[in-house]
């Protein structure tokens, strides 16, 4: 692909956020989350531009290039957009709905209006920026109306959509009062991608069930299942829309840029372990502070194992790195206070002066530093109630090329489909989490060779299925997809 504006990525966030330091100065820092972690290296390798929000409300910025040469087109959001579109509809309606109602979604008509408004604004920006016949790759749940609006504004564009979070079963999705509009928005794309086959199957099934006001179906799938497209590079299934377009649907498991996370500097790793007091076993959690991540559950499991004597506080520490996230939303405040209360209680009970058993860090850190944390950890704990992929699991595996370490992984994380050699657990069942942690500890001691084989198998999976494979398989399929077929390309009324 050549020329910045013939390949356009559009996501709610730009890859950098304007961050204000304590001394009042502002700097551009990497934005949080797996979407940016995965797409940044892809955009750096392709010549492309990125349309998104720069992380601060009510400010206008001119387009600029990152140090890595990616052209950024900032979209302005007002404080009211931030509340209604971002905190409201995106993160208090869609996020909990798509994560299987871990907390109840709020259905608010004003938030829905804000969501439509902001999707229209993004569409106007992309329509103004994209070159004739450009490929536009729309990202994630914040922008699900964009493919439909863009198709009307710019029928010359090739439009892909990728969902970075789970897609729920139709019986849950159908709660959404604006379900028909959302499905129609997505069906504006030529190709819709999900992380795994079960998410794609949920969407295919849903498309069959949702009808327009006249009772007619808005889409008919030709299959209800798809095969993973990363290996075949063929679109798994299609949905024929009521206006006769054939929209591709596929499963494309996202991954990581293995080079950007390692190898860790052995001196930095040794220094970290020394700072922790040279414990026998270091456990690690790395998450945005989100209620979907099961951080409290892993702390409770750790606490019960200390209480029962199964783990010895003189031998083990848990390091929990938690990136601040969506901090004004009530459920996130609750999650943070529950986590911090548990950390305090566990340290109060089992720590000694200068020797906490839980080392809690509520901040973001550079990837190189995070890489050293992963490399020094004997056991990584990923205990999400539900997660699209959980790239942190893959990042941990990537930093252990020698097969050291062990991974405890939720069976509800997308990564569990590929990392099946992990110690899988059910985070809704504390006994299951405790069992997986103990198995990991015992295996490291008693079955080192088998543990090494498990880690090496996962390392092979991650390194041979990296983010380049994800992006190239999606973009190859998008190049084949042509939902308009023989249509004359006339825009439909908006
Ligand atoms: P999500 O996208 O929901 O945040 P993932 O596990 O898929 O979850 O991706 C999280 C990404 O954020 C990973 O690339 C990880 O390295 C990064 N990350 C998580 N915590 C931190 C942190 N404290 N500092 C820097 N990066 C972080
Ligand atoms: C997840 C979502 C992304 C989002 C990221 C960080 O990875 O899939 O779309 O950008 O979390 O969340 P935030 O609300 O800070 O953008």
UniProtKB/TrEMBL annotation:
Q: Which family does it belong to?
A: Belongs to the glycosyltransferase 20 family.
Q: What enzyme class is recorded for this protein?
A: transferase
Record Pfam families: Glyco_transf_20
InterPro entries attached to this UniProt entry: Glyco_trans_20 (IPR001830)
- Domain of life (superkingdom): Bacteria
Q: Which residues cross the membrane?
A: none
One GO BP: trehalose biosynthetic process
Q: Which GO terms describe its cellular component?
A: cytosol
Q: What PANTHER family has UniProt attached to this entry? A: BCDNA.GH08860, TREHALOSE-6-PHOSPHATE SYNTHASE
Q: Which reaction does it catalyse?
A: CDP-alpha-D-glucose + D-glucose 6-phosphate = alpha,alpha-trehalose 6-phosphate + CDP + H(+); TDP-alpha-D-glucose + D-glucose 6-phosphate = 5-methyl-UDP + alpha,alpha-trehalose 6-phosphate + H(+); GDP-alpha-D-glucose + D-glucose 6-phosphate = alpha,alpha-trehalose 6-phosphate + GDP + H(+); ADP-alpha-D-glucose + D-glucose 6-phosphate = alpha,alpha-trehalose 6-phosphate + ADP + H(+)
Q: What is its EC number?
A: 2.4.1.347
Q: What is this protein called?
A: alpha,alpha-trehalose-phosphate synthase (ADP-forming)
Q: Listed GO molecular functions? A: alpha,alpha-trehalose-phosphate synthase (UDP-forming) activity; trehalose-phosphatase activity
The protein's organism comes out as Corynebacterium halotolerans YIM 70093 = DSM 44683
């Amino acid at each position: 692909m050549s020329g910045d504006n013939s390949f356009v990525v559009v996501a709610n966030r730009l890859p950098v956020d304007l961050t204000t330091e304590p001394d009042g100065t502002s700097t551009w820092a990497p934005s949080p989350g797996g979407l940016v972690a995965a797409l940044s290296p892809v955009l750096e390798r392709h010549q492309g531009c990125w349309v998104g929000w720069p992380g601060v409300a009510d400010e206008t910025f001119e387009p600029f290039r990152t140090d890595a040469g990616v052209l950024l087109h900032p979209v302005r959001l007002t404080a009211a957009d931030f509340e209604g579109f971002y905190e409201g509809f995106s993160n208090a309606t869609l996020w909990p709905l798509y994560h299987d109602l871990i907390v109840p979604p709020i259905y608010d008509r004003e938030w829905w209006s804000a969501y439509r408004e902001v999707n229209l604004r993004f569409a106007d920006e992309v329509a103004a920026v994209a070159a004739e016949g450009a490929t536009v790759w729309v990202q994630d749940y914040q922008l699900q109306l964009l493919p439909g609006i863009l198709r009307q504004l710019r029928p010359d564009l090739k439009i892909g959509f990728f969902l970075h979070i789970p897609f729920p079963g139709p019986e849950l999705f159908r709660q959404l009062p604006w379900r028909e509009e959302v499905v129609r928005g997505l069906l504006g794309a030529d190709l819709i991608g999900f992380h795994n086959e079960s998410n794609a199957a949920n969407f295919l099934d849903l498309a069959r069930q949702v009808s327009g006001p006249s009772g007619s179906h808005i889409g008919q799938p030709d299959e209800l299942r798809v095969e993973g497209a990363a290996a075949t590079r063929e679109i798994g299934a299609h949905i024929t829309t009521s206006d006769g377009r054939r929209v591709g649907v596929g499963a494309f498991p996202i991954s990581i840029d293995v080079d950007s996370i390692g190898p860790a500097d052995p001196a930095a790793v040794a220094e970290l372990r020394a700072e922790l007091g040279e414990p026998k076993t270091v456990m690690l959690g790395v998450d945005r502070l989100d209620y979907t991540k099961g951080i409290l559950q892993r702390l409770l499991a750790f606490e019960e194992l200390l209480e029962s004597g199964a783990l010895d506080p003189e031998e083990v520490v848990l390091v929990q790195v938690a990136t601040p996230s969506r901090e004004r939303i009530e459920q996130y405040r609750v999650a943070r206070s529950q986590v911090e209360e548990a950390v305090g209680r566990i340290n109060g009970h089992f720590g000694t002066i200068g020797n906490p058993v839980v080392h809690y860090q509520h901040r973001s850190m550079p990837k190189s530093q995070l890489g050293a944390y992963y490399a020094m950890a004997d056991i990584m704990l990923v205990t999400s109630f539900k997660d699209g992929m959980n790239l942190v699991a893959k990042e941990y595996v990537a930093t252990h090329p020698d097969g050291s370490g062990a991974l405890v992984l939720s069976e509800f994380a997308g990564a569990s489909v590929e990392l099946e050699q992990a110690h899988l657990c059910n985070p809704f069942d504390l006994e299951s989490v405790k069992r997986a942690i103990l198995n990991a500890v015992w295996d490291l001691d008693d079955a080192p060779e088998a543990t090494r084989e498990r880690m090496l198998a996962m390392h092979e999976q991650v390194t041979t299925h990296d983010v380049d494979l994800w992006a190239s398989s999606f973009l190859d399929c998008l190049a084949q997809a042509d939902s308009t077929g023989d249509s004359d390309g006339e825009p439909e009324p908006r």
